[in-house]
Amino acid sequence: MSLYCSNGRVRSGIAGVLSALASCLTFAQSPSDNIGPETYVIEPTHTFVTWEAKHFGTSTSRGRFDKKDGSITIDTIAKTGKVEINIDLKSISTGTPVFDKLLQGKNFFNSDEFPTAVFKGDQFKFDGDSVTEIGGTLTLNGKTHPVIMKASNYNCYTSPVFRKRVCGGDFDAFIKRSDFGMNYLVPFVSDATRLVIHIEAIRQ
């Protein structure tokens, strides 16, 4: 008798099978019985920060930031949390290098003078154990304004790769780029800009 578990090991014999079964059951669990604050670190290969804005009332311009880091502390019992996400503005990518250079310049993200944007949030709302909204501030181009990131979905699971608990979801907010000193071509290029953060973070 043998048992194969998703950790890649085959166990034989009664004792081996029982041990493997226990391992499989432990691996399959995605515990939700948190007993206090837990800290998660952003997993960059499953976290994406993007923006989009209407261009002269026709198409929607989009781009992403390839470098980001940060951490989240969350307490599903007390219904509290805090998050900090750092975004490297020089890592902007639209697929068009000339456009990237324009967006990095003073008329838009001004990344030479202010290379990092930071979202900090500590106003968490929950539906059960799921985060539905995070209120905080966005610092961009040397200016800080309140922002509410709303979740379109949220979930936690045990990662088969990292073998740790992972939580995350899709969050978005609309900001006015003129609030952050990016007035160039308003209103022809929309002032309202959608900021999207698709995030997964690993429990430490």
Walkthrough of the structure:
The structure is a single chain. By secondary structure, this protein is mainly beta. The protein folds into two domains: 30 residues, no CATH class; 172 residues, Beta Barrel (Lipocalin), CATH 2.40.128. The protein has two helices and 13 strands, in the order E-E-H-E-E-E-E-E-E-H-E-E-E-E-E. An eight-stranded antiparallel β-barrel has the order 3-6-7-9-10-11-12-13. The chain has a two-stranded antiparallel ribbon with strand order 1-2. Strand 11 and strand 12 form a beta hairpin. The longest helix is centred in the N-terminal third of the chain and has 16 residues. The chain is elongated.
Characteristics:
single chain; 204 residues; mainly beta; Lipocalin; 8-stranded antiparallel β-barrel; two-stranded antiparallel ribbon; 13 strands; elongated; disordered N terminus
Spatial order of the strands in the main sheet?
3-6-7-9-10-11-12-13
Could you give a short account of the major beta sheet?
8 strands, antiparallel, barrel
Rg calc: 21 Å
Mean pLDDT across every amino acid position: 88
Helix content: 10-25%
What would you call the shape?
elongated
Helix and strand sequence: EEHEEEEEEHEEEEE
Query: What number of structural domains do the residues give?
Result: 2
What assembly state would you assign to the polypeptide chains in this entry?
single chain
Say which CATH homologous superfamily of the largest domain is assigned.
Lipid/polyisoprenoid-binding, YceI-like
In what range is the share of β-strand residues? Answer: over 45%
CATH class of the largest domain: Mainly Beta
Q: Total helix count?
A: 2
Poorly predicted spans? 1-11, 17-32
Reported CATH architecture of the largest domain: Beta Barrel
The CATH topology annotation of the largest domain reads as: Lipocalin
